[in-house]
Design a protein that fits this description.
Blueprint: E1 2-5, E2 19-24, E3 33-35, E4 41-45, E5 52-58, E6 68-76, E7 87-91, E8 94-100, E9 109-114, E10 119-125, E11 133-139, E12 146-152, E13 157-162, E14 169-176
Length: 180
């Protein structure tokens, strides 16, 4: 089973109080889980098959039994050897999942997966990125300019302009070092 955090809680983490428990049909473990924006689907990476993304569908959430998740589909990244974290955002009416290479020896690729078209797009291969990519975040959704933030386990945060639609990058605008 896995515990998942419920957004909006501010207290101590207590299983089955401000978290819920669920079972997967194939005993999977993952580094990262994220809900689709309509909470219809749950997405994850896979710890055992490190270059895969999975969309899960829920069993009944209205019974007192622990809900079961079953795989709806799995995709294999064409660019990423180890997905460490996923972050889902709704941009232009589409749920987009952003992630980066979690095994930097394989390159510094950052990708986005469009859950509607089931298309993976390589956003950048930035040789300046050092360390394993641990976070890929987006800001400015709905504004005139969105930004993509890429953080490695060595501390730097790389900031890029994210073009309208969320599936292509503009220029790198800043690198924030661990000392800053």
């Amino acid at each position: 089973t896995t515990d998942a955090w419920v957004a909006g809680t501010t207290g101590t983490w207590n299983a089955n109080v401000n978290a819920f428990e669920f079972l997967t049909t194939d005993n999977v473990s993952a580094d990262s889980w994220d809900f689709g924006t309509r909470s219809k689907w749950l997405y994850s990476n896979l710890y055992s098959d490190r270059n895969k993304l999975v969309r899960w569908k829920f069993g009944s959430l209205t019974t007192t039994a622990v809900p079961t998740l079953t795989r709806d589909y799995t995709i294999t990244s064409a660019y990423i050897a180890r997905i460490r974290t996923i972050n889902l955002y709704n941009i232009g009416g589409k749920d987009l999942i952003f992630y980066g290479e979690g095994a930097i020896a394989n390159g510094a690729d950052v990708c986005v997966f469009d859950t509607t078209t089931k298309t993976e797009t390589l956003l950048t291969t930035d040789s300046a990125i050092t360390g394993d990519i641990m976070n890929v975040k987006v800001s400015g959704i709905g504004s005139n300019q969105m930004y993509l933030y890429v953080q490695s386990d060595l501390g730097p945060i790389y900031i890029y302009k994210l073009n309208a639609g969320g599936t292509s990058l503009g220029e790198k605008v800043k690198t924030i070092t661990a000392n800053e």
